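Hi V.,

You were right to ask for the full record rather than a summary. Here it is.
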Amino acid sequence: MGVEGGPAQPGTACNDNNPNTINDQWNANCICIGYVGIDEPSAAAAMVLQPNPATDAITIDSPAGLVLGYDMHTVDGRLVRSTVVNAQRATVQRDGLANGSYHITIRFADGRATRTIVFE
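Predicted structure:
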């Protein structure tokens, strides 16, 4: 896998010869491993959710693309809200949700991005 006698320091680039992985690196056990991943939509990189944590509402700002909508789940996976937006800014209202963390999956034209939000 690596170059015999070559560097195998953790974090050093290598090639695990698996076309399905990216960013291959030597790990702490001197094994060359890669990561399987799915790129987030480009709009997600510029997206801002604030304030987080919040008491009443969280604003989603997406200057790089339209937010088509979002789905919000409890940490145990129960869907508590599904909303259509079609705008670059959306407000997630608390509307009686209990204190705690929620996973929000935001839909864009080119994919989805999931973040954790907290209501206090």
